[in-house]
Amino acid sequence: MNEKEAREHFRAGVHYLQDIEGERYEEAYAEFKAAYALSKSPKVLGNIALCAMKLERDGEAIELYTRYLREVSDIATDERAQIERDLETLKASAAPVSITTEAMRSPYGNPASASWSCRSRHRR
Q1: Are 86 and 58 contacting, i.e. CB atoms less than 8 angstroms apart?
Q2: What is the value of pTM for the model shown?
């Protein structure tokens, strides 16, 4: 674990959230993800979840906030209450989606390719 590098990424994430021109959630998200990858500290999960929520990645925000609440025991009471409210809102607005596809067959009975090519003739 490279603790120094993880801290640098974490500080960069905080800096992006405190940008005087406005929060930069995409950049902060990337920095917090890098910090977590290096440190595996569950305390970073709350920061990643916040950015995911602001970036409308609701499924990921729900998963990360849930893990954060479960894995971090010393969350301030007001922060925990806010996260629980955010989770309720996220869960109420999220809808599970399932996509099922069937294999396509060409007119000749063979599986069809996902990419098609065509030829065209130019007439003069």
Answers
A1: no
A2: 0.75
CA distances from 8 to 20, 71, 89 (A): 20, 23, 32
How confident is the model at residue 117, as a pLDDT?
Answer: 42
CATH architecture assignment, domain 3-93: Alpha Horseshoe (1.25)
> Which residue is listed with tokens 């030829």?
119
**33-44 residue pLDDT tens:** 999 999 999 999
User: For the segment 59-92, what is each residue's pLDDT rounded down to a tens digit?
Assistant: 999 999 999 999 999 999 999 999 999 999 999 8
Q: Is the CB of residue 52 less than 8 Å from the CB of residue 33? A: no
The residue behind tokens 């003739």 is 121
In angstroms, the CA 17 to CA 10 distance is 11
Inter-residue contact 86 to 64 (CB < 8 Å): no
Count the helices and strands in the chain (H runs, E runs).
5, 0
Token digits of residue 106: 């060409």
Q: Contact at 8 Å (CB) between 7 and 44?
A: no
Q: In residues, how long is the chain?
A: 124
